[in-house]
């Protein structure tokens, strides 16, 4: 019997690392296409930016969800550090850095929203047409 799949196509129990690996590979593939000159036009960029907004939001949610998990490590695990620092200090630093990551991802999501807003004002004009002059500065052919 085939296993059920989530919306992303991953098996329901797929690990977080597997999901992040798939997303990373897909993004790297997209970067390769763009750098090879196969980037999206305005409409495509709008759609891709919209997806980027959701991805950044989801990553921010992940960072926020991980912080309390890590904060609970000392109660759930017997920890030791590979240096002379108390493991509790490493736990505290990890939680602080996850909070900083969440903040940075929130800022990145805001920037992506600004990109989406800006690119939403761009539209392509079919070839062999003259765009309408909305500024009133185009030259007129009925005057010398």
Question: Can you characterise this structure?
Answer:
Residues 131-144 have a biased composition (Polar residues). Residues 122-144 are annotated as: Disordered. By secondary structure, the chain is mostly helical. It has a domain at 39-119. The protein contains 4 helices and no strands. The chain has helices at residues 16-35, 42-71, 73-76, 87-119. It is elongated and about 70 Å long. Mean pLDDT is 87; it is low at 1-5 and 139-144.
The percentage of residues in β strands lies in under 5%
- Helix count, per DSSP? 4
H/E series, N to C?
HHHH
Structural class: mainly alpha
Low-confidence stretches are 1-5, 139-144
Spell out the blueprint of helices and strands:
Layout: H1 16-35, H2 42-71, H3 73-76, H4 87-119
Helix pairs in contact: 2-4
Region (Disordered): 122-144
Biased composition (Polar residues): 131-144
Short précis:
The chain is an all-alpha fold and 144 residues long. The chain is 60% helix and 0% strand.
What are its keywords?
single chain; 144 residues; mainly alpha; 4 helices; disordered N terminus; disordered C terminus
């Amino acid at each position: 019997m085939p296993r059920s799949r989530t919306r992303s196509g991953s098996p329901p129990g797929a690990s977080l690392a597997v999901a992040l690996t798939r997303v990373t590979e897909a993004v790297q593939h997209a970067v390769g296409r763009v750098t090879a000159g196969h980037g999206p036009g305005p409409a495509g960029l709008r759609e891709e930016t919209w997806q980027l907004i959701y991805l950044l939001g989801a990553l921010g949610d992940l960072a926020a969800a991980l912080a309390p998990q890590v904060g609970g490590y000392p109660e759930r695990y017997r920890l030791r550090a590979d240096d002379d620092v108390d493991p509790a200090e490493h736990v505290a630093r990890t939680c602080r850095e996850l909070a900083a990551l969440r903040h940075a991802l929130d800022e990145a999501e805001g920037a992506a929203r600004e990109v989406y807003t800006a690119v939403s004002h761009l539209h392509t004009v079919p070839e062999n047409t003259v765009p309408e002059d909305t500024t009133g500065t185009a030259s007129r052919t009925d005057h010398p």
